[in-house]
Design a protein that fits this description.
seven-stranded mixed β-sheet, 17% helix, alpha/beta, Purple Acid Phosphatase, chain A, domain 2, globular
Length: 389
């Protein structure tokens, strides 16, 4: 198993030619802290080897796939302050080694400004350093884009980060503050502009390894991503039939002329159509990996309606990384470690348990049965001196 990281985070990768991505999400910090558990800080301490009984591991960057908050109403500034305190558990990495995107619970009422809470406290662009502690100048791999869609690159590895757009009129999002709607509005949503940006990035970067990270996976990929598959698990607010996947595309986000489309079995969404057509036309997948969260896993090898936590469709590997929480909707706290090795066209995916697994009397640490190798479209080229090239 990979050894404990030391500062700087890139040192271990420079030594063994590997680049390690810690993929996690759904910390739902307020829900766990109310019960005395630091869902995010605990996982950080475990990863850095400073929590007794938990094996540490090397990682270069962390991609957090969202749902930092937990409320059935928009998150508050106090939720944000608790989040920042938990990120201060980092001692062997910078806060800027963590790349965030928004989940459905991180959205606010649309009249409060789309993404305003996430921009202030998750702050991928480093726009609100005073509040978030994120300083863009300290990013080893700088970001380009906006809070809801941005990219960064490490070697020939391109990350496309897509945030959920839950700050929208119902049923897509949480609505207007005057309505005081309750619920997480779990069905995934992005704008048409975000899709077009993503499509352009994919088409223009076929010479690179491409990882898409989004709070939601696409329909009929991993566990609980079928049409209607999230019903009874994700709550009844919003588009319940699409509550387990990226369901909505916002065509016009003007509240006075709000329009959207949905991904349904007889009418696939634009992401599904693009990935399907690309593979048919070119005989190869368009991207390498799609990392999502959202549906909390109840076991390391969970299968629901024939779908597991790692599946392939259109030649793309879809990975469910969720979740770090123990008390928001239940689940077994876990995350993933993705290891890219210099010159190799295979990716190693490992699963780390952040709490013991009582059903198998398994301790905190690596769950070997869930380890898997998946193909990559190109051999990996590591970043030079810990920076993107």
């Amino acid at each position: 198993m990979c050894p404990l990281s030391t500062w700087p985070a890139s040192a271990q990768s420079a030594a063994d030619g590997a680049f390690r991505v810690w993929a996690a999400g759904d910390s739902h910090v307020p829900a766990d802290i109310r019960r005395g558990r630091e869902s995010l800080a605990k996982a950080i301490r475990q990863s850095e080897g400073v929590e007794r009984g938990a094996p540490g591991f090397a990682w270069d960057v962390m991609i957090d796939v969202g749902d930092l908050s937990a409320s059935q109403f928009p998150p508050t500034d106090e939720d944000g302050r608790v989040l920042v305190r938990q990120y201060q558990a980092l001692t062997r990495h910078r806060r800027e080694d963590v790349y965030n995107l928004a989940g459905n619970h991180d959205g606010v009422y649309y009249d409060h400004g789309p993404g305003s809470w996430f921009r202030k406290w998750g702050d991928p662009l480093g726009e609100h350093t005073k509040w978030s502690g994120v300083d863009a100048s300290r990013r080893r791999f700088p970001v380009e884009g906006t809070w809801e869609r941005y990219r960064f690159q490490a070697g020939n590895l391109l990350f496309l980060m897509l945030s959920d757009r839950n700050s929208a009129p119902a049923p897509v999002g949480r609505g207007h503050s005057s309505e005081k709607l309750k619920g997480g509005f779990p069905a995934g949503a992005v704008t048409r502009e975000t899709f077009q940006w993503w499509k352009r990035q994919v088409e223009e970067n076929q010479d690179k390894l491409i990882v898409t990270a989004c709070h939601h996976v696409l329909r009929d990929t991993t566990t609980r991503s079928a049409y209607g598959g999230g019903a009874g698990f994700h709550g009844a607010s919003g588009g319940v039939e699409g509550s387990g996947y990226l369901y909505f595309v916002i065509e016009n986000d003007d509240p006075d002329d709000f329009r959207y489309t949905q991904s349904e079995p007889d009418k696939p969404g634009p992401f599904e159509v693009f990935l399907d057509e690309f593979q048919r036309q070119h005989g190869r997948p368009a991207i390498d990996l799609w990392v999502g969260g959202h549906s909390h896993s109840m076991s390391p090898l969970q299968v629901y309606e024939g779908k597991g936590l790692i599946e392939q469709r259109w030649g793309v590997t879809f990975l469910q990384a969720s979740g770090l929480t123990q008390h928001h909707g239940g689940g077994l706290p876990m995350s993933r470690l993705l290891t890219f090795r210099q010159g190799q066209d295979r990716l190693t995916i490992q699963l780390y348990l952040h709490e013991p697994y009582p059903a198998q009397d398994h301790p905190v640490g690596w769950y070997e049965k869930a380890s898997k190798e998946v193909p990559l479209r190109h051999p990996f080229i590591a970043p030079a001196s810990g920076r993107s090239g």
